[in-house]
C-alpha cells in the first residue's frame, strides 16, 4: 500500500468510470478526496460515501468543466473543505465521434472547452495552493499518440494537447518541487466503452495483452505518480493501455 496519509486531492469527473476509481484509490491509500461531477449526482453521492467508509474525507462538488466560473468555485470549495490541495487529477472529459467534415461547431467547442481548456483552468486555479511535492496528473488517451482508425480525429486532437501541456507545465513548476505527469489509458471497461460493446473485439485486437484495462488499473498508475515513489518523475507520459501503442 502506498502512503498518501495527510494528502488532499481534487479529482475532476470523479463520479463514475476511471475518475471514480481514481478517487477511491487515492482514499484507499490515505488521501482525503474532493471530486467534481456534472450530472451523475446519485453516483457522486455513492462515491463520497465510499470514501467516507474508508475513513477519509470525501466531497462531491457539482461543476461543469466547460464553465470557467464553475472551475474556480470547485477549487475554492475543495480548498475550504480539505484545508488545501496537494494533488490535482485532471480526469473530466467528453468524447466526440465523427468525421471532421461532419462535425458540428457546438460539439467541437464543448470538446475543446472540457478536454483542453478545463485542465488548463483547473491547474491555473490549483497552482497557488500546491505545496512543494504537489502533483498535477492528467488523464489523456492512447489516441493522443496513435490514431489507428477514422472518426476520432477531433477527440484525439484534444487529448494530444495534454502532451504539450504536461511537458511544458512540468518545466514551469519544477522549480517549486511540483511534478506534472500524464497517464494515457487505452481501451478501458467503463459505461462509456464497455468490454462487451460492439467495437470491443476490434479494440482488444489492437492491444498486446488482448484485453481491456480495468478502471482500477489506471487508478493504480495515478496513485503511484501521486506518491513519494515518483518524486523525480515529471513531464512523463505513462501509457496504461495493454501495449496498444507499443
UniProtKB/TrEMBL annotation:
CDD domains: SDR_c (cd05233). The keyword Transmembrane does not apply. Signal peptide: none annotated. It holds the Pfam family adh_short_C2. GO terms for molecular function: oxidoreductase activity. This is SDR family oxidoreductase. Keywords: Oxidoreductase. Belongs to the short-chain dehydrogenases/reductases (SDR) family.
Amino acid at each position: 500500500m502506498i502512503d498518501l496519509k495527510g494528502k488532499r486531492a481534487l479529482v475532476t469527473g470523479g463520479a463514475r468510470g476511471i475518475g471514480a476509481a481514481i478517487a477511491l484509490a487515492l482514499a484507499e491509500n490515505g488521501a482525503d478526496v474532493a471530486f467534481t461531477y456534472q450530472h451523475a449526482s446519485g453516483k457522486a453521492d455513492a462515491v463520497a460515501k465510499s470514501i467516507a467508509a474508508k475513513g477519509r474525507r470525501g466531497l462531491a462538488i457539482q461543476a461543469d468543466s466547460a464553465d470557467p466560473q464553475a472551475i474556480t468555485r470547485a477549487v475554492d470549495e475543495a480548498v475550504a473543505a480539505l484545508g488545501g490541495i496537494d494533488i490535482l487529477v485532471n480526469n473530466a472529459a467528453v468524447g466526440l465521434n465523427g468525421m471532421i467534415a461532419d462535425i458540428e461547431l457546438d460539439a467541437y467547442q464543448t470538446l475543446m472547452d472540457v478536454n483542453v481548456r478545463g485542465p488548463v483552468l483547473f491547474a491555473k486555479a490549483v497552482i497557488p495552493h500546491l505545496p512543494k511535492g504537489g502533483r498535477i496528473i492528467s488523464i489523456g488517451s492512447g489516441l493522443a499518440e496513435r490514431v489507428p482508425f477514422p472518426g476520432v480525429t477531433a477527440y484525439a486532437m484534444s487529448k494530444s494537447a495534454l502532451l504539450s501541456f504536461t511537458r511544458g507545465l512540468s518545466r514551469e513548476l519544477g522549480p517549486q518541487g511540483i511534478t506534472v505527469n500524464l497517464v494515457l489509458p487505452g481501451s478501458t471497461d467503463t459505461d462509456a466503452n464497455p468490454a462487451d460493446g460492439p467495437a470491443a473485439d476490434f479494440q482488444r485486437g489492437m492491444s498486446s495483452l488482448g484485453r481491456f484495462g480495468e478502471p482500477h488499473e489506471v487508478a493504480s498508475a495515478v496513485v503511484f505518480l501521486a506518491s513519494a515513489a515518483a518524486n523525480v518523475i515529471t513531464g512523463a507520459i505513462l501509457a496504461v493501455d495493454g501495449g496498444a501503442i507499443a
